[in-house]
Each structure stands twice: as structure tokens, then as C-alpha cells.
Design a protein that fits this description.
By secondary structure, the protein is mainly alpha-helical. 79% of the residues lie in helices and 0% in strands. The chain contains 10 helices and no strands.
């Protein structure tokens, strides 16, 4: 197997593994639009990374985490619905990122790569960053699984109205490390679609989390195969494969026992 294809496969599998349980939490808490907001904010992180001459990946990670903290703060202080705040932050950060990039005339940024991903261009250093980030998030999910599940099941246990801070920060890290793989506009799909497909046939939260991870792994392999044999873009091919698995979940009989 070519090195670039192996790097792409390992990076995709690492992301799919951690996206399963976290995506399950996203589906349970109806947090999909929060993921979109962080995806839009990632572009602002890229712009600030070039402006401050730091790693765009590091800038995106810090920016997403700060946005999650900002959202929690606004939810506590402003009598606005969560979806209203998310809409304001999503479009504001995306527009601010584009405006910031427009002022840096000497910088040439391939926005298509950041928006839609460039999985086949993942280098060895990128792979290490992705694996390390995914391992960190997976360890945190295992450590916080019971508290996060309790908050999901028992709404009154949440200390603030809206999204648990811990889950928001984990999503922020996943989006930052996944930006290189499927792009900022498609990472939310990889979080949500496998989890939604697994939900139909799971009989427990743990089964849904494991099933979502497995479906994500299959989607990555199928998407890369489609990209390799049909010369399609890798990131969107993975999401299309995940969507196909979601449709297949409706064809298969639902488990009732």
C-alpha cells in the first residue's frame, strides 16, 4: 500500500473510532448545530493561525475551545435560545475568518482543502497529531462516559441550560483534528450520520456508541476505496459512504429484542 494511502486510512480510522461515541452523544443531545458552529469557527482559527504565524491546526483547536467556552458564558448570561446564539456565532465567525483572510494579501490559502478536506495529503506529522488528538478524546470519553450519559438521561442534572461543557470541549478537539481529513464543512456529518444509523438497531447506549464507531470505520474504508478506484474526493466520498450506510439501516429490519 502506498504511504499516502496508508496515512489516509490510519487517520480516517482514528477519527471514526472516536467520532462514534461522541457522535452518539451529539445525536442524543440534539447538538448537531453546535458542531456546525464549531466547523464555521474553524475557518477563523485558520485565518488567525496565518496572522499570528502559528500552526493552523493549533489555532483551530484553541479557537474551537474558546468558542465553546464563549457559548456557555452567553447561555448563562443572555436570555436567548441556544439555536439563536449558535446561529449568531456560526455566521459571525465564518464571516470574520473570510474578512481576516482577505486582508492578508501575501497569504494564499487553499480554502477548498480546509472546507472539504484533503485526506490523501495527510503527512506523517499530521497522522501523529490526529492519532494523539483522537486518543486523548477517546480517553476522556471513557473517563466521562457515565457522567455525560447521566446528564443526557436526566436533564435536571445539568448545571446550565443547554450543552454540557465537557462534551462541547471534546467536540471542539475532534473538529480541530478532523479538519485535515474531511474538512470543516463535513466533519459534523461524520459525527452524526454513523451514530444516527446505529441508533436504530442499538439496544443500549454502549451498543450505539460501538456501532457508530464500526459504521464510521466502514465508511472510511468504503470512501477511500471509492476515491482510489473512481478518482473522487476522499472526504466527501467518506460522507457519501456514511450516508449509504444510514439508508441501509432503514432497509434492514429493526431489532426488537
Amino acid at each position: 500500500m502506498a504511504d499516502f494511502l496508508l496515512n489516509a486510512l490510519l487517520a480516517g480510522l482514528a477519527l471514526a473510532l472516536v467520532a462514534g461515541p461522541l457522535g452518539s452523544f451529539v445525536v442524543w443531545r440534539r447538538m448537531a448545530y453546535f458542531g456546525d458552529t464549531l466547523s464555521h469557527a474553524a475557518l477563523l482559527g485558520v485565518a488567525l493561525g496565518f496572522l499570528l504565524d502559528v500552526s493552523p491546526t493549533l489555532a483551530v483547536t484553541v479557537g474551537c475551545v474558546l468558542l465553546a467556552v464563549l457559548l456557555v458564558t452567553l447561555q448563562q448570561r443572555q436570555p436567548l435560545a441556544a439555536d439563536t446564539l449558535l446561529g449568531i456565532l456560526a455566521h459571525s465567525t465564518l464571516s470574520l475568518g473570510l474578512v481576516t483572510l482577505s486582508f492578508m494579501k501575501e497569504v494564499r490559502v487553499d480554502l477548498m482543502a480546509y472546507l472539504f478536506g484533503d485526506l490523501l495529503a495527510v503527512s506523517a506529522s499530521d497522522l501523529l497529531w490526529i492519532i494523539a488528538g483522537s486518543a486523548l478524546v477517546l480517553a476522556l470519553i471513557c473517563f466521562l462516559w457515565r457522567p455525560l450519559l447521566a446528564i443526557t438521561v436526566h436533564e435536571e442534572l445539568a448545571k446550565v441550560e443547554g450543552l454540557p461543557v465537557g462534551a462541547m470541549l471534546l467536540i471542539a478537539i475532534v473538529i480541530a483534528v478532523a479538519m485535515k481529513i474531511v474538512g470543516v464543512l463535513l466533519i459534523t456529518s461524520l459525527l452524526i450520520i454513523p451514530a444516527a444509523a446505529a441508533q436504530r438497531h442499538a439496544r443500549s447506549p454502549e451498543q450505539m456508541a460501538v456501532g457508530a464507531s464500526l459504521l464510521g470505520l466502514v465508511a472510511v474504508c468504503a470512501g477511500l476505496a471509492l476515491s482510489w478506484f473512481k478518482d473522487t474526493p476522499a472526504g466527501p466520498s467518506i460522507v457519501v459512504s456514511a450516508a449509504g450506510l444510514f439508508l441501509l439501516s432503514f432497509v434492514l429490519p429493526r431489532r426488537t429484542v
